[in-house]
Amino acid sequence: MPTYVGALDQGTTSTRFIVFDRSGRIVASAQEEHEQIYPQAGWVEHDPEEIWRRTQNVILRAMQTRLLRASDLAAIGITNQRETVVAWEKRTGRPLCNAIVWQDTRVEKMVSEFAGDGGIDRFRAKTGLPLSTYFSALKIRWILENVRDAREKAGAGELCCGTVDSYLLWQLTGGRQGGVHLTDVTNASRTQLLDLQTLQWDAEILRKFAIPIQILPRLVSSSEVYGEARLEAIRGVKITGVLGDQQAALFGQTCFEAGEAKNTYGTGCFLLMNTGENPFPSSCGLLTTVGYKLGTAKAVYALEGSVAITGALVQWLRDNLAIIRSSAEIEELARSVRDNGGVYFVPAFSGLYAPYWRSNARGVIAGLTRFANRGHLARAVLEATAYQTREVVEAMEKDAQIHLFSLRTDGGMVENHFLMQFQADILNIPVLRPAIKETTALGVAYAAGLAVGFYSGLSELRDNWKSDQTWEPHMEEGQREMYYRQWKKAVTRSFDWVD
User: Fold this and answer.
1) Which stretches of 344-433 are DSSP H helices?
2) Counting Cβ atoms within 10 Å, is residue 415 exposed (0-12), middle (13-18) or buried (19+)?
3) What is the CB neighbour count within 10 angstroms for residue 193?
4) Neighbouring-strand partners of residue 366
5) Which of 205, 278, 406, 489 shows the greatest Cβ crowding within 10 Å of its Cβ?
6) How far apart are CA 424 and CA 485, in angstroms?
7) ∠ CA 170-171-174, rounded to 5°
8) Hey, CA dihedral for 46, 49, 50, 56, is it positive or negative?
9) How far is Cα 334 from Cα 385, in angstroms, rounded to an integer?
10) What mean pLDDT comes out for the span 310-314?
11) Dihedral sign of CA atoms 398, 401, 404, 408 in order
């Protein structure tokens, strides 16, 4: 009798395979990073074949760690970086080009061209999304128009295209020997090609973007049987869950009721609020997205505030400026100063996402004086994450007319106590960290387990959630508002940098 569920968590910087027991405890885990490729300014790429190699490696390593057999797993789920696009040949499985990552801004001119006829919100009523370099549709269009033979292969039925989940699902279920080409509705809702009401690819938008529907994956729910794994270490295990990473974290945080929200602090920052069974249009710069869909049940929707650069800013401080040797050092460095010294860092490296949606903004450091030192810069880097989160929370509360009384958090940066305390202070609400911190992987493991009856239902999953630590706000109101007012001023300095 299988006693575990597996989760493949393919993120922006690394790939992990985690095995959970029924209570959500980690039994085995393995992780490998992959290369970040920057061919020119604004371009961000990954090698899909490297990601596939890393995927095979981490699955094998995790299974070997505890001498697990395929028969020990009831099911496997896949969660992934969402808007990143992969195009590959059906016959060979060979990618036509590197994956275009969600942070990539090469389609900025296309955004302007399409926005010239109806504005950036011309497709928002159907898709819940503004025109932006962020989403998948224009990346697919760029590949078709700029990669050799891509358009011809698409027309001849020789091309598959999709987000990373669809590429890995195809590979895991056999690849060129019968792999299935599918994607779930949460990932599809990030492409700007999905009609949120019908949960089908929208023919009109496909026509406007000149994207042939035959290259796209078939649409499925987030929790059902898609196929069986062919990889030796997990051969025969059913793959039964797929969720975009932020929706997986929402599910793993057991935010099953309208009004419940979580914030994930990773490469970017992603705040999602469950809004129930109807898509909720935003008037405050947020995204309307599919939260999850379990089998034949109705889809559950969410409002999302996406911040492009948070954890990536810490990596930038480490890799580009060499101010710290490891990401963990930033907390000690930030604590070396009493305050931010008037320094604010707006990390608009690829424009500003929610609630501004300004693709022509660029990063700025404001308030520098001779007094400022590396400690102030480190502190400004961490504070930027908290300020951006507050902007999204305010927009979400205004949209949904719901006041958040606490915020559930997850992601790599929740280990930074300075950041979590500052987040509570700047929001003036408690910030909660769950006992099981790997909520993204756990969320898709839950979805996979539900599809095969490993879990009895949502109430069992909710009973698993426990708080590990809570940070209460302690900052005085005057200081809080002074910090936030200066941040808003710094943000305006980043606007319209690119002509």
Assistant:
1) 374-400, 417-427
2) middle
3) 25
4) 344
5) 205
6) 17
7) 85
8) positive
9) 13
10) 87
11) negative
